[in-house]
Design goal:
This protein is an alpha/beta fold. It is about 35% helix and about 25% strand.
């Protein structure tokens, strides 16, 4: 299961660029890497049955991680943290990383895409993490009920999401508020990446946010998907500010944001 030499020797911050330039179009020659991929920062945990051609799977198969900047931050939190809430967990990468690095830690993860749910559950079981990772197979949003969900293209695991209009590519799935699913306890990290609907997820955390239970939040802002859902730019930031949280882009010009309780 040896990865290509360059994927082993380059610094992690360069490996994603290498993957996109040299290996993404050549996954057929490296299909063995997709069967079982040890995580770069926690080699005793692996991800299984990854999807050749999928950009998330490819990065994990060749490099052992996806989104390096967020990976290193989550890993730092996990060394001392106990509880991660992972919203838009996909096949479980960040949940598995947390459970592998935080030996006493636990995870509650939300994932709505049916194929991802099955792959994530397989990863939980094969890594024997059933006692520390709870997978909730529902969408998280600002209210409970049902919602129209676009499953996205078959070859990409991370391009699905809540849809404003039904179509041949959509299904109806259950939807919950995190306030109603997560216990009233300290959450070290809340990670949200749900293809445009991150603002609604935050609205559904109002109780936990008001009580300052959430220590650090990472959330995405996808302008194109937000526009289609009718979510205005800045709605998430205004909500967080009004509720007593500071925020800033994770990196300059990045669509990923970080927030934490305002320091008096």
């Amino acid at each position: 299961m040896t990865r290509p030499l360059l994927s082993r020797i380059l610094p992690n911050r360069f490996k994603s660029s290498l993957y996109y330039r040299h290996y993404h179009s050549r996954h057929d020659a490296w299909r063995h890497l997709f069967k079982a991929a040890p995580l770069a920062l926690c080699s005793e945990v692996s991800m299984y049955d990854l999807i050749p051609g999928d950009v998330i799977s490819g990065n994990i198969a060749f490099n052992g991680f996806y989104e390096w900047d967020l990976t290193r931050r989550i890993a730092e939190h996990a060394t001392n943290g106990k509880f991660l809430v992972d919203v838009g967990a996909n096949m479980g990468y960040f949940s598995l990383l947390w459970a592998g690095l935080s030996k006493a830690g636990r995870v509650i993860a939300f994932e709505a895409a049916p194929r991802n749910i099955g792959l994530f559950q397989n990863n939980i079981e094969r890594n024997q993490l059933e006692d520390r990772i709870t997978l909730i197979p529902k969408a998280a949003s600002d209210h409970a009920g049902t919602v129209t969900f676009d499953v996205g293209p078959a070859e990409q695991s991370g391009w699905g999401g809540i849809s404003a209009t039904p179509s041949a590519a959509t299904i109806t799935i259950p939807m919950v508020r995190i306030d109603e699913e997560v216990p009233d306890t300290k959450i070290d990290v809340l990670k949200i990446d749900v293809e445009g609907a991150d603002t609604w997820v935050l609205f559904g955390c109002e109780r936990l946010l008001k009580s300052r239970r959430i220590q650090t939040i990472y959330f995405e802002q996808n302008p194109q998907r937000m526009e289609r859902l009718g979510i205005a730019p800045g709605d998430a930031q205004k909500f967080l500010q009004d509720i007593g949280y500071e925020y800033h882009p994770m990196e300059a010009g990045d669509n990923m944001w970080i927030a934490y309780p305002h320091k008096a």
